Amino acid sequence: MKTKNFIGLILSIAVLLGLLIYWREYATRDQVTLYHVLLWQLAIWIPWIIGFKVLEKINKCSVESKFGLPLLLGVGLVFVCLHFGWFFMFSSTYSPYLDLEGSRFGVYRYFFIFWTLVDIGLVWFIIDKLKTTIEREPKPPLLLELTRGSNKYFCEPSQIYLLVAENYYTKLFTTEGTFVMRKPLKSFYDILPQNMFRKIHRSTIVNVNYVSELSRGSGHSLEVIMKDGTRRKVSRTFIKEITLFFKDRTY
């Protein structure tokens, strides 16, 4: 969640609550102006921008910690208490309803319902958005451990351009050479990035970034031609899917 979006949210809350309070206290409209009420509410809710930045920083620092969520909740509740303190201090001096009948410290009792619900809602909303943002951040590149003889090689997905199933083995063609692994093709397909690797046959997966051509043959057949000249047949099951996939990727 971006700071400017949160600022927009806070401004919306301040204006909405200002309008609701002004509408609710219709008996005092001859003594209070809407402009004063809106300014008062803006001043009350602006400190939440600081709270958002604090929670955002704590979230980044504790993303790998098992205490991350409890810490965020704790800090959020502390900020709610501080916000109540600010609310009383500011309202007892600048509230447009100060010294009016039925008000105390410049507020009416039902104000507390609004403030409490909105404060708790903001804490939950911020934490939920911050956690969602962290989860959406790209993960570090996946590394595959491949073996050839007694040597181990670590390959990123971008280094693999073709995978072919051979009985109980999978042959991987990479920029580091060819590897034969005793694992089914499906085990690789399940972990490789779907936007980079596409199945063109039940026994073949290609890295689309290494495809140079789609070649049409007789009888509506289709072949994928790799940049190194390797040709692989596309089964009828995948012809439409592969054709549409490359159509969407090209300009």
TrEMBL record:
InterPro entries: LytR-like, LytTR_DNA-bd_dom
Gene3D superfamilies the record matches: LytTr DNA-binding domain (2.40.50.1020)
Keyword Transmembrane helix set for record: yes
Signal peptide: none
Transmembrane segments: 7-23, 35-55, 67-88, 108-127
Keyword annotations from UniProtKB, A to Z: Membrane, Transmembrane, Transmembrane helix
HTH LytTR-type domain mapped to chain residues: 144-248
SMART domains: LytTR
A Pfam cross-reference name: LytTR
Keyword Chaperone appears in the UniProt entry: no
GO MF term set: DNA binding; phosphorelay response regulator activity
Protein name, per record: HTH LytTR-type domain-containing protein
Originating organism: Flagellimonas aquimarina
